[in-house]
Amino acid sequence: xxxxxxxxxxxxxxxxHRGARPLTGFFxxxxxxxxxxxxxxxxxxxxxxxxxxxxxxxxxxxxxRLRDVTDAPALxxxxxxxxxxxxxxxxxxxxxxxxxxQLQYALGYLLAPPPPxxxxxxxxxxxxxxxxxxxxxxxxxxxxxxxAPGGVEGAGAAVAWAREAGLAPVSAEEVAALLDSExxxxxxxxxxxxxxxxxxxxxx
Length: 204
Hints:
The protein is an alpha+beta fold. The chain has helices spanning 23-26, 62-70, 107-110, 131-147, 151-164, 172-179, 186-197; strands spanning 12-18, 37-38, 46-52, 74-80, 84-90, 97-101. The longest helix is centred in the last third of the chain and has 17 residues, at 131-147.
């Protein structure tokens, strides 16, 4: 099983938009898109693009700019070392929403844990835990889930977005079950999520 946080993990963003035109066709001068490549198996009329962090960060308003230039719902997923993904979506008429995939594995990247050594440099063992860090991590997780709720609430927003986009999503309950699942690679969970929203074709 691939160790989470391994150097081979993907850092970057998946971008979902309506149409076959590549992102560089809309944003020719946007440097982070220089190494972007198609990803997944999107249904006809949609595109999924992989953007690498090594090419630079996308601007904060990229999602809304993409929504506006395509005049259609759009979605991004920021992937942290193939361990977790933060999905953000913008609709034309439906409200924006966010949801985490595999949030529990994002916490160590968002709030770095202390090294497992005492003040004399002695190793404290693999089972050692810092109570202050554990409390701070739990509080962070609570805040993140409040800002980007999962479960039926998050799934319902995702399904509404997909329907506005003219896609054929599964039920909110089925999407909610996916939000509670996990894989070794967060990309696998993300593409399963897209499949349930109707963005990507089912595997043959």
